[in-house]
Amino acid sequence: MANEYMVYAEDVTLVADAIREKSGNTQQLIWPDGFVSAIGDFTGSGDSIVLNVVGGTTQPSNPSKNTVWVNTSTAITGWCFSKDEPSPITNGMVWFYTVPNSPLAIDILEENSIYLYPLYAKQYVNGAWTVMETKIYQDGAWSDLSVRLYYYGYEKTELTGGFSRTWRNGIGSKTFTKNADNLYLKSSGSEMGGSNFTVGTAYKIDLTGYSTLNARIKCTTMTSSNFYISVHESTNDVEPYTPSCHTSKSTVYEGILSLDISSVSGEYYVLLGVSGSNINNRCECYVYEVYLQ
């Protein structure tokens, strides 16, 4: 004879409500077959990880959600999302350096949310780590995975030390302000001459393997002046705004300013600057992003 138990109706209702919440079914459930059938519809269909890391020299033409493409001619032998360097290391391994928060987040679950926050990707090739061009496919579009040194108020201080070193030259006025979502630079000449002002990272950064230095800027005033980005390997406090590797804008401008640093190897300061050569110079710019690719 089968065992018989007493079950309170309100307890059965609680179970039914839990099943309906999980399954999304709002109809009445009949005990016991209806309960068994409803549970069977979702048991084992929990969250799955949605992440696909691929390599190659051609960007995938029909990617799925969270496809991560590493532009490489070396076969990917493994990959790791971590703050710490993976171990053991094999030739071809890709290391996605992660932090607690970053501009580009990857939600790797189908239903619920677990986020990864990568800042950049390196591949181990022939005994050395090399920064790789990497893109992630989300919401129907590709997004670049780059090393953000500054991003709308977020400073990667563990790498840069912050944009805190300043160099000043000339008689005119200079202003540097860290606002909530931008770095603000202003330079104005005076009757005694022009004005030059540079802001740089506190630490040197190893630029080996990177191809471009980029800054998202908005220059609202530009008279006999220019705004520039550059890299400099010395601590020269007199002429840091005249390095050989630099690019500039001398007109009112809003967009991305990019500097080719593919020929640069080793550690350098990253610099932002405004300068003018005469008493009439006026330059006012906002910097929203600084990143390496």
CATH architecture title of the largest domain? Sandwich
> Average pLDDT across residues?
79
Question: Which structural class best describes the helix and strand composition?
Answer: mainly beta
Strand content: over 45%
Helix % is under 10%
Overall tally of domains: 3
Count of β-strands: 23
CATH homologous group name of the largest domain: Galactose-binding domain-like
Task: Supply Rg.
Answer: 27 Å
* Helix and strand sequence: HHEEEEEEEEEEEEHEEEEEEEEEEE
Query: Quick one: CATH class of the largest domain?
Result: Mainly Beta
Distance between the termini: 73 Å
* Oligomeric composition of the shown chains: single chain
Major beta sheet summary: 7 strands, antiparallel
Shape type: elongated
Number of helices: 3
Unreliable sequence segments: none
> And the CATH topology of the largest domain?
Jelly Rolls
Name the descriptors.
Jelly Rolls; 293 residues; 3 helices; mainly beta
Task: Offer a concise description of the structure.
With 293 residues, this protein is mainly beta.
Describe this structure in words.
- With 293 residues, this protein is mostly beta strands.
- It has three helices and 23 strands.
- It has helices spanning 9-23, 33-42, 157-160, and strands at residues 52-56, 67-71, 79-82, 94-98, 106-107, 115-116, 118-125, 128-131, 134-138, 141-145, 147-151, 154-155, 163-170, 173-178, 183-188, 195-201, 205-206, 212-223, 225-232, 246-249, 253-260, 267-276, 282-292.
- Strands 11, 12, 14, 15, 18, 21 and 23 form a seven-stranded antiparallel β-sheet that branches.
- It is elongated and about 90 Å long.
- The N and C termini lie far apart (73 Å).
- The mean pLDDT is 79.
